[in-house]
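TEACHING EXERCISE
Course module: macromolecular assemblies
Task: Read the component lines below, then compare them to the predicted structure of the full complex.
Student: A.B.
Group: 4
Components provided:
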Amino acid sequence: MKLGIVGLPNVGKSTLFNSLTKAGAQAENYPFCTIDPNVGIVPVPDERIRQLGELYHTKKVTPAVIEFVDIAGLVKGASKGEGLGNQFLANIREVDAIVHVVRCFEDDNVVHVDGSVDPVRDIETIEMELIFADLEVLERRISKVNRTARMDKTAGKELALLEKIKAHLEDGKLARTMISDGLVDGEDDRKLFDSYNLLTAKPVIYAANVSEDDLADDGASNAQVAQVREYAAKNGSEVFVICAKIEAEISELDDEEKAMFLEDLGLSESGLEKLVRASYHTLGLMSFLTAGEDECRAWTIKIGTKAPQAAGKIHTDFERGFIKAEVVNYEVLLREGSLAAAREKGLVGIEGKEYVVQDGDVILFRFNV
Ligand SMILES: Nc1nc2c(ncn2[C@@H]2O[C@H](COP(=O)(O)OP(=O)(O)O)[C@@H](O)[C@H]2O)c(=O)[nH]1
Ligand SMILES: [Mg+2]
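Instructor-supplied answer key:
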């Protein structure tokens, strides 16, 4: 899973990015790789595999990971070449979801590019740039399809779809809302729609960056956070409240200090944990687990994935040669103390090709290649 962090300059993107990548690196002792100064791999905090690791005296505990990209250069006019211009586009095209950081904190020492704190205006500024970028993609495709449309019926059908999306964007609406509004009908159109890889078709999670004082009540007393929530709800998006400055402080702490610090602030989880939850929910993801003496590991899959395809996440041979899956919920496994004990009590399911994997399943795949 790859998430791109966007937002106007000086809203706290890099502060958030740095704290996420650093906190992750410390918390899980994961070989933190900096692919690029703006790309970081962050392990997903997962208490379940830690506990399974203890049960099995496992050599290696491997969490699921999220890749974050700190995308700079999005300013008013970026799609027309302002700031870093279109450089940011290539970075956003590849992400699964966008984390849009908006400034909801007051601080006279931090300059706002538009002079005042106004998160909904800021969101609209950024989204307008993304819409412009998408319109360019559509124009290019339209002129290409136009050349064949007269002769070719499928091209004619595509042209109609392209014009429909274009009109939607020109109305100032995000491509994503065409899906939620049921404006893309049929599998063929949906396939085409997805193939354009439009920026405004990507799911968005808004990160309301608040001051320290607004953290404990999750931004409930901050009117600007309320505006962001209202805006997000209209587009079916999620909002999570963070204080990037506090996240940066948290990222310096070890686990024990971190727990104490969060408690002092009246918080039950860190920004990273909130973000992970929002991302999994927004993208319709969940995880299943594998456990053994060599490795305990979390694997990320789409909700609704069947056993053979889940096996394919581990290795394509597992999917091809899938015979059956032995499945036990991780809590049951921890309670019973071993797979053998759980089996004896009949608590381990023998599942076939049609089994839909559940969150928290510990699975042993049987396959034949
Ligand atoms: N008061 C306050 N300042 C912040 C917060 N987050 C970031 N800043 C400050 O805002 C400035 C810009 O932050 P940065 O992360 O570089 O913004 P970016 O341009 O979006 O990457 C820096 O001086 C940060 O210390 C916050 O939550 N509260
Ligand atoms: Mg930055």
